[in-house]
Amino acid sequence: MLTPTDAPPVSEKAYDPSEFNQYVMSTYGRFPIALKQGKGCLVWDTQDREYLDFVAGIATCTLGHAHPALVETVVQQISKLHHVSNLYYIPEQGALAQWLVEHSCADRAFFCNSGAEANEGAIKLARKYAHTVLQIEDPIILTAKASFHGRTLATITATGQAKYQKGFSPLVPGFAYVPYNDFEAVKEAIASLDTSERRVAAILLEPLQGEGGVRPGELEYFLRLRQLCDRTGILLILDEVQVGMGRTGKLWGYENLGIEPDIFTLAKGLAGGIPIGALLCKQFCDVFEPGNHASTFGGNPFACAAALTVCQTLEQERLIQNVQERGEQLRKGLRAIAAKYPQLIAEVRGWGLINGMELQAESPLTSIEIVKTAMEQGVLLVPAGPKVVRFVPPLIVSAEEVDRAVAEVDKAIASLA
Ligand SMILES: *Cc1c(COP(=O)(O)O)cnc(C)c1O
């Protein structure tokens, strides 16, 4: 049986970007390397250069690369049964749903394949709830400016950033935007949108804005939102696609905010890099009926077995405690760098192992320059907007690896300063 360490590499030579671009649509600005293998928090490119991976497939490879438990599960499951259909009961899906329900505030789960698809499901569920329970003819979903919810038409509309929407009009009706962490703005929006047919039915937010610059939600804001939703019947939906599954040092991002959502969505880290998405809700708003929503691949035995292994490994390896400790260590290291370059670095912030280093607005330095220089030094990082460098390593990252990443970032910034 092949194991990741003796698997043949995809290519012995460095990958030729022009050849690649001849066949693949140019939707991404790519860095000029191709990765061929990984182990733990390390990855190797086609020229055998080693990198410390603090991107983890953008907060996705929860257990790093080639984790023995995940390898074992996916090899076994694909040899046994990988896909059937939701025409039949799928025991692995039931077991995963049970684990998620028993470890969260939710009562029910629906499985799909990505974050955008999970959020689409949440939008549909909220609209159906609005029509059938709240009796709103024209329901509005409030979302935040600088948010990110995915790339389908409904989720780019939910995403409160013009750059993702430009060129794709007409957008989906039924959304309105408020600044994040501003409770008064929510109250004003609800009041101003209220007509006889039209009303706010749901508020969709990230517990911490990931793509929008690693901006944590404020406790007071979410507490007041929760009270407002309880009072008005408006649904509170949290997009946990990036922060769920232990990344914040708690299993769910909402645990940092002292509240429970009515609905939340998962994807990225849920199966550690095997595609899966999930929509979870409390029983009172579980208004889907047979035929209302579906997904061919959603919740297949392969993806669910992988996700269940990620869930069990989080517990067995006590990874959430590691996230708390390594997160503290990383922020301390990055803040020491920030203290050396106050003219370049404005702030280091985050929860657990989702952290951002924000550059001074006045400084000409951009996040992409730091990411490129760090890559040359052997550390993979990812921007979260033009002025924030994001650090989202696998949750298994060791103390030595955090020290090494900090040392290399220090060197990268010194060379740019
Ligand atoms: C990545 C992300 C999404 C989109 O997930 P996809 O799997 O790329 O569709 C949605 N919401 C948040 C918060 C994300 O970080």
TrEMBL record:
<dbReference type="GO" id="GO:0003992">
    <property type="term" value="F:N2-acetyl-L-ornithine:2-oxoglutarate 5-aminotransferase activity"/>
</dbReference>
<keyword id="KW-0055">Arginine biosynthesis</keyword>
<dbReference type="GO" id="GO:0030170">
    <property type="term" value="F:pyridoxal phosphate binding"/>
</dbReference>
<dbReference type="GO" id="GO:0006526">
    <property type="term" value="P:L-arginine biosynthetic process"/>
</dbReference>
<dbReference type="GO" id="GO:0042802">
    <property type="term" value="F:identical protein binding"/>
</dbReference>
<feature type="binding site">
    <location>
        <position position="148"/>
    </location>
    <ligand>
        <name>pyridoxal 5'-phosphate</name>
    </ligand>
</feature>
<keyword id="KW-0963">Cytoplasm</keyword>
<dbReference type="InterPro" id="IPR004636">
    <property type="entry name" value="AcOrn/SuccOrn_fam"/>
</dbReference>
<feature type="modified residue" description="N6-(pyridoxal phosphate)lysine">
    <location>
        <position position="268"/>
    </location>
</feature>
<keyword id="KW-0663">Pyridoxal phosphate</keyword>
<dbReference type="InterPro" id="IPR015421">
    <property type="entry name" value="PyrdxlP-dep_Trfase_major"/>
</dbReference>
<keyword id="KW-0808">Transferase</keyword>
<dbReference type="InterPro" id="IPR015424">
    <property type="entry name" value="PyrdxlP-dep_Trfase"/>
</dbReference>
<protein>
    <recommendedName>
        <fullName>Acetylornithine aminotransferase</fullName>
        <ecNumber>2.6.1.11</ecNumber>
    </recommendedName>
</protein>
<dbReference type="InterPro" id="IPR015422">
    <property type="entry name" value="PyrdxlP-dep_Trfase_small"/>
</dbReference>
<feature type="binding site">
    <location>
        <position position="151"/>
    </location>
    <ligand>
        <name>N(2)-acetyl-L-ornithine</name>
    </ligand>
</feature>
<feature type="binding site">
    <location>
        <position position="296"/>
    </location>
    <ligand>
        <name>pyridoxal 5'-phosphate</name>
    </ligand>
</feature>
<dbReference type="InterPro" id="IPR049704">
    <property type="entry name" value="Aminotrans_3_PPA_site"/>
</dbReference>
<keyword id="KW-0028">Amino-acid biosynthesis</keyword>
<keyword id="KW-0032">Aminotransferase</keyword>
<feature type="binding site">
    <location>
        <position position="295"/>
    </location>
    <ligand>
        <name>N(2)-acetyl-L-ornithine</name>
    </ligand>
</feature>
<comment type="pathway">
    <text>Amino-acid biosynthesis; L-arginine biosynthesis; N(2)-acetyl-L-ornithine from L-glutamate: step 4/4.</text>
</comment>
<dbReference type="InterPro" id="IPR050103">
    <property type="entry name" value="Class-III_PLP-dep_AT"/>
</dbReference>
<dbReference type="GO" id="GO:0005737">
    <property type="term" value="C:cytoplasm"/>
</dbReference>
<feature type="binding site">
    <location>
        <begin position="239"/>
        <end position="242"/>
    </location>
    <ligand>
        <name>pyridoxal 5'-phosphate</name>
    </ligand>
</feature>
<feature type="binding site">
    <location>
        <begin position="115"/>
        <end position="116"/>
    </location>
    <ligand>
        <name>pyridoxal 5'-phosphate</name>
    </ligand>
</feature>
<comment type="subunit">
    <text>Homodimer.</text>
</comment>
<dbReference type="InterPro" id="IPR005814">
    <property type="entry name" value="Aminotrans_3"/>
</dbReference>
<comment type="similarity">
    <text>Belongs to the class-III pyridoxal-phosphate-dependent aminotransferase family. ArgD subfamily.</text>
</comment>
<dbReference type="Pfam" id="PF00202">
    <property type="entry name" value="Aminotran_3"/>
</dbReference>
